[in-house]
Amino acid sequence: MKALLSFALLALSTVPVHAACTYPTAPSSIPDGATATLADMVAAQKAVRQFDQEISEYTSCIKLEEDAQLKGDKLTDEQKKAIQAQQAMKNNAAVDADQALADRLNEQIRIFKSKQSANKG
After folding, report:
1. Per-residue pLDDT for 7 more than 60?
2. What is the rounded distance in angstroms from the CA atom of residue 46 to the CA atom of residue 43?
3. Exposed e or buried b for every residue in 43-57, given b needs 16+ CB within 10 A?
4. Between helices 77-120 and 38-70, what is the axis angle to 10°?
5. pLDDT at 121
6. What is the largest CA-CA distance in the chain?
7. Mean pLDDT taken over the chain
8. Rounded distance, CA 80 to CA 26, Å?
9. What pTM did the predictor assign?
10. CB-based contacts of 109: which residues, under 8 Å, 6+ apart?
11. Which one, of 40, 43, 33, lies nearest residue 117 by Cα?
C-alpha cells in the first residue's frame, strides 16, 4: 500500500500543478428571430461576442496549461501524447460549442431580418 501511495505522489509531482482554466458560461438563450425585438437581437449578439472572446481566452489558457505540463524531461512520450490529446479535446470542444452558438444566433438573425423585410413590404 505504501508503494502505491509513493507511486501516486511521484506521478503527481512530475506534472506541474496549475490553476485550472475556467470554461466560460454560454449565454442562456438565443431569442427567436420570428418574435424578438431589435433590442433582443442586439443583446444576444453582444452576449455571443462576449462568449466568443471568453472562449478565445479559455483556449489560450489551456494552451499555456499544456505548455507548462509538457516542460521538463520527466514525462514519457506516452504521457506527453496523453496531455496533448486531452488539451486538444478541450480546445476542440470549446471551439465547437462557440461555433454552434454563433450558428444558432446567425439562423435567428436571418429569421429576424426576413421578418423585418416582410413587414416593410
Report:
1. no
2. 5
3. ebbebbeebeebbee
4. 170
5. 66
6. 80
7. 87
8. 31
9. 0.78
10. 33, 41, 45
11. 33
Closest CA to 50 of 30, 25, 70, 31: 25
Per-domain boundaries in the chain: 48-112
Task: Return the DSSP state at 73.
Answer: S
pLDDT of residue 72: 78
Q: To the nearest whole percent, how much of the chain has pLDDT over 70?
A: 83
C-alpha radius of gyration, the chain, whole number? 22
Q: Quick one: cell of 94?
A: 470549446
Q: Which pLDDT does position 41 carry in this prediction?
A: 97
Distance of CA 48 to the CA centre of its chain: 13
Alpha helices in the chain (DSSP H): 2-14, 38-70, 77-120
52-104 pLDDT, tens digit per residue, is: 999 999 999 999 999 999 997 789 999 999 999 999 999 999 999 999 999 99
